[in-house]
Amino acid sequence: MTILRDSNTSVTTFANVTEKVGDYLICAALDILPTENISVVSPTGVEYQGVREAQEVCAVSILRAGASLENAMRRGYTGRLSFGKILIQRDESTSLPTLYYSKFPTDVESKIVIILEPMLATGGSACQAIETIKAKGVPEENIIFVNILASHYGIKKLFERFPSIHLVTAAVDEHLTPSCHISPGLGDFGDRFYGTSE
């Protein structure tokens, strides 16, 4: 987190560290998945009683920054995986979210949905994304929100509206700036990951 927060970190290093943090987060999220018992035979010919995921997974990226966690999702999950996309833009003057686009698998309601979004500031975009996913028939308890950095305010807002979701995050910051950015934060995640900052 220190490397990600450092304003002197290069785009390449920022992206590489994001991948590493993403691997940890996805592993933690996958531990939440419901499982069922399965028996396999090991190379020594001994039967082993193990488990496997009981439901398929759909990872939903909140564009554009959420796509930064997709590779970690592909590396971490060994089952049948599908992806959805949501485009939500925050109005910088009002901090209110607007939904522009969403696309999900046709059977998304039968899956565990893992939302990929590196930053949770005010919770506006996250709440909009969850509302959109729930409108497709996904039960609230089947939604896992994976995030690199959250604010206390955003977490509180998220769980006030959606108490049954799961949240996996790497760090929590105490404050928001007057412009509703996380403080101390790490800047605009998308700009730093994609190298588009001015």
UniProtKB/TrEMBL annotation:
One of its GO terms (biological process) is pyrimidine-containing compound salvage. Gene3D superfamilies: 3.40.50.2020. InterPro entries: PRTase-like, PRTase_dom. Pathway: Pyrimidine metabolism; UMP biosynthesis via salvage pathway; UMP from uracil: step 1/1. Its cofactor is Mg(2+). Keywords: Allosteric enzyme, Glycosyltransferase, GTP-binding, Nucleotide-binding, Transferase. Residues 1-196 form the Phosphoribosyltransferase domain. It comes from the Eukaryota. Its EC number is 2.4.2.9. SUPFAM superfamilies: PRTase-like (SSF53271). One of its GO terms (molecular function) is GTP binding. Belongs to the UPRTase family. NCBIfam families: PRK00129.1. This is uracil phosphoribosyltransferase.
